[in-house]
TrEMBL record:
Species assigned in the record: Callithrix jacchus (White-tufted-ear marmoset)
GO terms for biological process, alphabetical: antibiotic metabolic process; glutathione catabolic process; homocysteine metabolic process; inflammatory response; leukotriene D4 catabolic process; negative regulation of cell migration; neutrophil chemotaxis; proteolysis
Enzyme class: hydrolase
Name recorded for this polypeptide: Dipeptidase
PROSITE patterns given in the database record: RENAL_DIPEPTIDASE_1, RENAL_DIPEPTIDASE_2
Length: 462
């Protein structure tokens, strides 16, 4: 009916008249006028019916293929608002207010898979980052324990599919920042055992082995010019374990190093298109070409300042980013990484996690096929995850010396002077009577002093 209303014409109405052409009878002219005004009156109805059609189609598709979102910071909000006291009645996820995410909103948004961000700030680097990372992993696990009818913690692509069948939200852990492993492959492996299934190589700070996006803005000095040799070992170990490599927050040099080195596809868990918004947190077109070549994935961030490069943005501009990445890297390279509960401003029409159907309806309106929509909802992420799992050598009978559990490659770590030299460090004596604070970048001589202090501390301790 909508198509007929949009294309129907009256033979009695014409906007132009050739010289000498008979204008017709007064009745005919009145009929044409009525037709014009009827069409104008019906136009809002047509638009409304069309919008309802796309919304209905979106919800039909999403009932079978729910959203897998690559990045949600609800665990950080639970720390910030309630100090991780999930038993606090105000922290009830069924009634939680003041956040982008709660259980009713997840249901309304057809979210069936969520990578929960396990995040600790950069100022915990070389201090208590590991402990605080473990505490946030504990929050995710307790969410699954406290709301078993809604959340199920999973660690595999098959686990996600099973959660879909059960009508639950598959809950996975993404560790947001390489500083959480404290430059230790042992810590990396331990986090894998606790459920980490992607690692963001940096947050908004360099690690001793990888450069972050602020290097590209000039707000941070390059340290590794991408990945250091140890950073390359981190990438190889992530491949071996079957953990997805996340390149959100890293420098362009780090992006390119990781994309070229990784045996498996990688992800950008919450990044958008640099060509549409020139924030260095976004992915430039030459990197999108590498994404295409490696069958990798960009999960679009909804933060206004990464969508429009201003404080205001709309759902339609988010769809523009999806269109652009599809155009450059292919429909299989696109996903969603909304960054809900991790950003202060979200687009009009995407104010919380319940709004996903509106975005899917907009993609359908833009002539995305049903197969492409199912891909951006979940299929593309599942494809990458399965490729990472398949590439993992953990299940192989025969491993190289470097790959084998306990092998030489797994024992490697950054030497202490190399680890400390480019960073700031707070040293505390084991003696309560003294405290030393080093307040500048560490030089080689300063590191030698650190080692001497360490020997002194150990002699006092024993």
């Amino acid at each position: 009916m909508a198509e007929w209303l949009l294309t129907g014409r009256s033979s009695s109405f014409s906007s132009t008249r050739q010289p000498g052409q008979h204008r017709g009878t007064r009745a005919a002219r009145q009929a044409g006028s009525r037709t014009m005004w009827t069409r104008c009156w019906l136009w809002p109805l047509v638009a409304m019916c069309t919008a309802d059609f796309f919304r209905d189609e979106a919800e039909r598709i999403m009932r079978d293929t729910p959203v897998i979102d690559g990045h949600n910071d609800l665990p950080w909000q639970l720390l910030d608002m309630f100090n991780n006291r999930l038993q606090d009645e105000r922290a009830n996820l069924s009634t939680l207010t003041g956040t982008h995410t709660n259980i009713p909103k997840l249901r309304a948004g057809f979210v069936g898979g969520q990578f929960w961000s396990v995040y600790t700030p950069c100022d915990t680097q070389n201090k208590d980052a590991v402990r605080r990372t473990l505490e946030q992993i504990d929050v995710v696990q307790r969410m699954c324990q406290m709301y078993p009818d809604t959340f199920v913690c999973v660690t595999s692509s098959e686990g996600i599919r099973n959660a879909f069948r059960e009508g639950k939200v598959a809950s996975l852990i993404g560790v947001e920042g390489g500083h959480s492993i404290d430059s230790s492959l042992g810590v990396l492996r331990a986090l894998y055992q606790l459920g980490m299934r992607y690692l963001t190589l940096t947050h908004s700070c360099n690690t001793p082995w990888a450069d972050n996006w602020l290097v590209d803005t000039g707000d941070s000095d390059a340290h590794s010019q991408g990945l250091s040799p140890f950073g390359q070992r981190v990438v190889k170990e992530l491949n071996r374990l079957g953990v997805m490599i996340d390149l959100a927050h890293v420098s362009v040099a780090t992006m390119k190093d990781a994309l070229r080195l990784s045996r498996a596809p990688v992800i950008f868990s919450h990044s958008s298109a640099y060509s549409l918004c020139t924030s260095r947190r976004n992915v430039p077109d030459d990197v999108l070409q590498l994404v295409k070549e490696t069958a990798s994935l960009v999960m679009v961030n909804f933060y206004n300042n990464y969508v429009s490069c201003t404080n205001e943005a709309t759902l339609f501009q988010v769809a523009d980013h999806l269109d652009h990445i599809k155009k450059v890297a292919g429909a299989g390279a696109v996903g969603f990484g909304g960054d809900f509960d991790g950003v202060p401003r979200l687009p009009e029409g995407l104010e919380d996690v319940s709004k996903y159907p509106a975005l899917i309806a907009e993609l359908l309106r833009r002539n995305w096929t049903e197969a492409e929509v199912r891909g951006v909802l979940a299929g593309n992420l599942l494809r990458v995850f399965e490729a990472v799992e398949k590439d993992s050598s953990c299940s192989l009978v025969s491993l190289s010396t470097e790959q084998a559990p306990g092998g030489e490659g797994q024992d490697q770590s950054i030497p202490l002077p190399e680890l400390l030299a480019p960073h700031w460090l707070l040293l505390r004596s084991v003696s309560p009577s003294a405290e030393w604070t080093l307040t500048g970048p560490m030089s080689k001589s300063c590191c030698e002093q650190c080692l001497a202090l360490k020997d002194q501390f150990l002699s006092e301790l024993f």
